[in-house]
Design a protein that fits this description.
Rossmann fold; binds 5-O-phosphono-beta-D-ribofuranosylamine; 22% strand; alpha/beta; globular
Length: 197
């Protein structure tokens, strides 16, 4: 059985969309895969409640308790390790996980570490993507699912969704429109990865 571990920091709506798709579409039977754990770097992440209610193991690893990024990432890999099997490598899904990962962590999970970013990459890497898209006068915005590499918000593009930017949009209204599309493309991209395996 392939384990999927999802990392979150907050609302966890993408994580919830992935969990719901996995249950609705029967990923266990279809792909021999299951979402085994949800790990948050914040104890008050709302998504933890949803995961717990769905019977998924939840864990908190507070980055503030670690002196360096290396130490935090080492501890994180230690948590994930128990779900990683030589014949069934774990799939690590970043879903609103607001931490930059070290090159060592990324290297360890290359090809099995994915992220969703709320812009049409390669445009607008980093933060405040919606406001930057509005400020730049973009007529379209969107989201990208991509493989994670050592360079932030780069890596092979697995899926994208496009939404219009409307004349009265604020960063919040645009973010909400993009988020509804994220909930569609992220579970689908993961299912595609599991299918290809
Ligand atoms: C999403 O917009 C995602 O693209 C970005 O952070 C947000 C997380 O939302 N990385 P949620 O925690 O999945 O609700």
């Amino acid at each position: 059985m392939k384990n999927i571990v999802i990392l979150i920091s907050g609302g966890g709506s993408n994580m919830a969309a992935i969990v719901k798709s996995a249950q609705r579409e029967g990923w266990r039977e279809k792909f021999n895969a299951r979402i085994t754990a949800v790990i948050s770097n914040k104890a008050d992440a709302k998504g933890l409640i949803f995961a717990h209610e769905r019977g998924i193991a939840t864990m908190v690893l507070d980055h503030k308790a670690f002196a360096s990024r290396d130490e935090f990432d080492g501890a994180l890999a230690g948590l994930i390790e128990r779900f990683d099997q030589p014949d069934e490598p774990v799939l690590v899904v970043l879903a609103g996980f607001m931490r930059i990962l070290t090159p060592a962590f990324v290297a360890r999970y290359t090809g099995r570490l994915v992220n969703i970013h709320p812009s049409l990459l390669p445009a607008f890497t980093g933060l405040h993507t919606h406001q930057r898209a509005i400020d730049a006068g973009c007529k379209f915005a969107g989201a990208t699912v991509h493989q994670v590499t050592a360079e932030l918000d780069h890596g092979e593009i697995l899926a994208q969704a496009v939404v219009p930017v409307l004349p009265d949009d604020t960063a919040d209204t645009l973010a909400a429109r993009v988020l509804t599309q994220e909930h569609i493309i992220y579970p689908r991209a993961i299912a595609d990865l599991l299918q290809k395996k």
